[in-house]
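so im writing up the methods section and need the Polyribonucleotide nucleotidyltransferase record in one place, dumping it here so i stop losing it
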Amino acid sequence: MELAGRTLTVDVDRVCAQSNGAALMHYGDTTVLSTCTASAKPRDGIDFFPLSVEYEEKMYSVGKFPGGFKKREGRASDNAILTARVIDRPMRPLFPKDYRNDVLLNNLVLSVDQDASPELLAMLGSSLSTCLSDVPFDGPCATTQIGMVGGEFVVNPGNGEKAVSDLLLTVASTKEKVIMIEAGANELPEAKMIEAIYLAHDVNQQIIGFFESIIEECGKEKHSYVSSAIPEELFAKMKEVVKPEEMEKAVFTDDKAERDANVSLLSERLVEAFQDDEEALAILPDAIYQYEKKTVRKMILKDHKRPDGRAIDEIRKLEAEVDLLPRVHGSAMFKRGQTQIMNITTLAPLSEVQKVEGLNEFETEKRYLHQYNFPGYSVGEAKASRGPGRREIGHGALAEKALIPVLPSVEEFPYAIRSVSETMESNGSTSMASTCASCMSLMAAGVPIKKPVAGISCGLVTGDSDDEYLVLTDIQGLEDFFGDMDFKVTGTEDGITAIQMDIKIHGLTRPIVEEAIRRAREARLFIMNGVMKEAIAEPRAELSPYAPKILTMSINPEKIGDVIGKQGKTINGIIEETGVKIDIDDNGTVSISGTNLPDLERAKKIIESIVNDIEPGQIFEGTVVRMMDFGAFVQLSPNKDGMIHISKLSDQRVNKVEDVVHIGDKVRVKVLEVDKMGRINLSMRPQDLVEKQEA
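--- predicted struct ---
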């Protein structure tokens, strides 16, 4: 089919005949192999649906060797992990809830055309390969990306268009509803975002029609499986032991630890009641979870009663403060109910930007990094940290995306910026708390962001019909676990900067999407204008005394070699002499960084002396580096020497050069002449220096 100016082609049954389903996807010159493979039966004792999604980036797809010593692809990049998460989110709800077989969706990037996104093609291929397989799946779903260049929407933009786009929106849809939204935007108004979402939804319907024709011709019959659903008879028996009103009383409290303790006591009663029924005991933990879930959903939907007693649009208690830590460059704490984030900002020279090796030739480095950590103690678990997992990388990327639109340009603020969110306590939407904390931390560090940014998450509980639903503002953990949606939105007063939507049902109607976006705006304005502005209203005018100082200057790019010198001798000499750090980019921008401002200014002066042409009449402070019978040579800059003839050493007659100067002496000299050969003639005579001063 023709899709946004390029041809989308699918090869079926050409490769991977032993997988459950495979589709060799082509879009422009981008090629991705998507496969779906499932185990024949569930693993013993498994009580969840074990879906895994992989997105494999191969450097041969862009004609490059992998970096590193081994010259082989290793750990998945952050982009690969984030892409796998975006694929997982719309796919997971469309598998049967009672299915327990292992399923692996694998996407192998074989060839990349920079104008045709391999990530988008992998999303489409995952849906189609699963639909073609014999694995139970309520698809197809399709995915479209929307950009906005010059105020106009662009469907499936190429990398060049993405680089100048004010929006990068990814929307997945089923035949009826939107099922996944991921967005980064430059303060896009809510109405414009909704328009873009439903433009993508309309394009998705065309793709779904194309997929349906392929599935009808090539799809396999779905295999049968043993359902893991809890029998209704067991629920009936459980309600005789633990009455519904007892479960309601146990779960409806605003303290997570108290709720867990209450449910634990009820669980013990149920285990004791069914201790002679081995079949019931085997599925009792899942049955208790389902009983608790049904209770919470009923109370929210029917009675509009939330577990902690809040109104449906009420935000939990908020707290915010800055400057918690004395020696870091910036710090802030944000707390919402039992969710608490501490954020620390670190500033560094531009040489510390993160180098990015990947398939995208337009993104080779990152100046701003947001990293998120989720230790076990934040939820009361004795769990050692083993480095960031996919969830941590995803949460960090979302908060990073939220702040990028308001960051100052490199010209305005020539620093690399690292923002780290440490989760102190977690009970719902730590990524949105990280957004708020990182915004305040950046302002406390003196980063001149354009506007404050805040974020909030809205939830959803649905009934049997599309019209029976309730949107919840600021969901806590229980409402996330037992609800149908986690709709996260960040933005400024003027518009949206990021969206991430996860759902557990088969899609959202337009009224739900619009209400969630409206509620999120109301909530983030409340947060920004309340506790955040009270803690810190605007970026500080000065940096922390512990932050590096940076001076920038521009030089002629043709002079870069003069500053660096042969084998780096000149620049290393300046660094050794002044103790600063110097970075030079290809366009001639020089960044000089250090903690002592006089050292920075001295280094800048040396560089200026190297790149500026020597002219008669200039006065320099130089060092005597060589002596001859006829005069002394003085170093004016690391790569420029001049000569003082013996007759110009003094107003008086000089018999020997060493009677006046010695090697290593610091002397004040005036440029008399630069001859046709470029030789510089100098004078130390006081009368010449006086003339210059008077002039």
